[in-house]
Amino acid sequence: MTKITTVLQQIQSRLVAPKSQRNTFGNYNYRSCEDILNGLKPLLAELGGVVTLSDEMVDVGGRIYVKATALLDVGGEVYEASAFAREPLARKGMDDAQVTGATSSYARKYALNGLFAIDDTKDADHGPPPQQQQRPQAPPPKKTRTTAERVAGACKAYGECSDSQAIRDLDEHLPLLLESCDGEQQAQIATARDGAVARANEGAH
């Protein structure tokens, strides 16, 4: 086993990146790219590895994708993994730089997931421990939230924001929502987000 393989195996078995972020308008917990990097950096310092992240803009069928690559370097030996995320056509509420930044963060997270074998399903301690001899039951049908409900949740989430980090966390998931919104819904989100940015700017002074 080569040195880089040993280091990669150690990181994959020891890396802890809890889902510490909460998406209030999607009603789920998630881990951000920053969460993964925070758990990764101490292991890299201990094991002698370096991770770099890079982006490349790719045109696929007239749509722009961000191709993010996560690269692990150990003494000149490298492993890498890539992931793609598509920039949305709808950009109301976000300028071009913010759209690209949110898309980049999304793609980078999944590149890191692929490189370090991070499972992005529910956490192991999400529910109660299984009972012995318990007959498995079919899960209840999952209620699908309508676009209007998701927009209302997004507006509420931005309405509760007052700091830049919380806004960036919400922005990471905004591109996918904007793709399914009509113009009026996009305007509603834009107004709520502008209010959050204004409060964050006031708090910074």
Summed over residues and divided by their number, the pLDDT gives a mean of 81
Largest sheet: 3 strands, antiparallel
Portion of residues in beta strands equals 15-25%
**Relative helix content:** 40-55%
Task: Give the CA-based shape.
Answer: elongated
Q: How many structural domains in the coordinates? A: 1
**Straight-line N-to-C gap:** 54 Å
Enumerate the spans where pLDDT stays under 50 for 5 or more consecutive residues: 122-135
Radius of gyration: 20 Å
Total helical elements: 6
Structural class: alpha+beta
- Output the strand order for the largest sheet: 3-4-5
Order of helices and strands: HEEHEEEHHHH
The tally of strands reads 5
Tell me the quaternary state: single chain
Short summary of the structure?
With 205 residues, this protein is an alpha+beta fold. It has six helices and five strands.
Give the secondary structure arrangement, pairings included:
Layout: H1 3-14, E1 21-23, E2 28-30, H2 33-47, E3 50-60, E4 63-74, E5 77-86, H3 96-115, H4 147-159, H5 164-179, H6 183-204
Antiparallel strand pairs: 1-2, 3-4, 4-5
Question: Can you walk me through this structure?
Answer:
- By secondary structure, this protein is α+β, with helices and mostly antiparallel strands.
- The protein has helices at residues 3-14, 33-47, 96-115, 147-159, 164-179, 183-204, and strands spanning 21-23, 28-30, 50-60, 63-74, 77-86.
- The protein has one domain (17-120, 146-204).
- The protein contains six helices and five strands; from the N terminus they run αββαβββαααα.
- The chain has a three-stranded antiparallel beta sheet with strand order 3-4-5. It has a two-stranded antiparallel ribbon with strand order 1-2.
- The radius of gyration is 20 Å and the shape is elongated.
- The termini are far apart.
- The model is unreliable at 122-135 (pLDDT under 50).
